[in-house]
Amino acid sequence: MIAGGSLKNRYRLSRYPLAHKGMGEVWPAHDTLLDRPVIVKTVGGLGVDQARRFRREALLTARFDHPGVPAVYDFGEHDGRLYAVIQRIDGVTLADLVNEQGPLPVGWVAAIGAQVGSVLLSARQIGLVHRDIKPSNVMLERSGAVKVLDFGLAVAPADGRYSRITESGQVLGTLGYMAPEQLNGADTDHRTDLYCLGATLFDLLTNQEPFDADSTRTLLERQLTGPPPRPTQLRPDLPAELDDLIHALLAVDPQDRPGSAAEVYDVLAPLACDLRPLPGVLDPASTVRAYAAIVGQVPQPGGVPPAATPLAAAPAPRPGNADAEADGEADGERAVAEAERLEAVGEFRAAARQWRRLASSHASRHGADQPAVFDFRLRAARVHVRLGEHDRAIRQLEALLRDRTELDGPEHPAVRAVRAEIARLTAGRPRSAPRSAGPDH
Predict the structure, then answer these.
(1) Which site from 72, 106, 196, 402 is most exposed, i.e. has the minimal number of CB atoms within 10 Å?
(2) What are residue 85's DSSP bridge partners?
(3) Which residues contact 207 (CB under 8 A, 6 or more apart)?
């Protein structure tokens, strides 16, 4: 490509490329036909496998119809070089954001993570595994919305058109963010991306990679054999549910991670609050836009996220709407029955998540100070006792005690009951019991 030149007599390239990557270049450009800014990625001098990989990345990205993924506008060959024309994103990578801002506020980390979780949920629906989620592959737009980039390592195992392209024995990914199964050359699935997301969230909260080491060998040993780190080791003020989520996402065994991106979303979305402006990056209006982006990507029943939806497109039930209120109550009763059923059949982990979801949903509808909200939170904590996770149950009960004491005072019967329950658990907790690694949700 020639600086300042034209591609197909349509895309006018800038005078300077944004980046050089091996045999490839990334150019800012202008689509003269549709009068819009674009990005042109080009590669040349490639072998057959490298050309296939570039073509495959463009096809996978184009297939991914989601507001959190840049659109692909065009693809072809020009003067012996393959090119792809994609949407230009007005924003910064998360890597640059953390380098500039330092550790990010909890609300923004949750807002970013919830949006990435929505992208990963959509990816799972089409059988796609990204395999390279990391801060430099995610951009935060000035609107507060998130874009996931670079599907060059993505695989769609069930679709032969997008099979893996790699040399024998070659490990592809980024050390420090790759899941252990990637490092071992084992099969990957949606839980691989959840691990990468956990490492990314750890970085955003602490401005450090989760497995810091002086050598590659030590780094690999820590990732493959060491206990998953907790961001509270570096930032003690983080909410317990966020700390536990990231700890679970970084589990060595995929079976120990959350079951889906929807579960991750459920934890992060309620924490995406107090979205203050980030100087030089996001203005005050971004708070509203970022929240709208999250709401527009809410995972739906059945696990299928909708396309981007304006915040006003999904109005809350109006006060006095008896039908809507009755529907909400019926849904709540069914959700309670499901939580009780899960407990009855011994599905304690799922039951705990269901009680937490009920608490969050009821709080959003009726207020966090409602007795039912406290009851759902209490029942979630008690399920963790049945799982043998006394530390986690105590943390949840202590948070419940603080909130209930603030509302009703220290001598309220419910407050005294929770205080007594904490005392019993603390006295009966095994001295050697490790802090649980399982997810709350």
Answers:
(1) 402
(2) 40, 74
(3) 98, 99, 102, 103
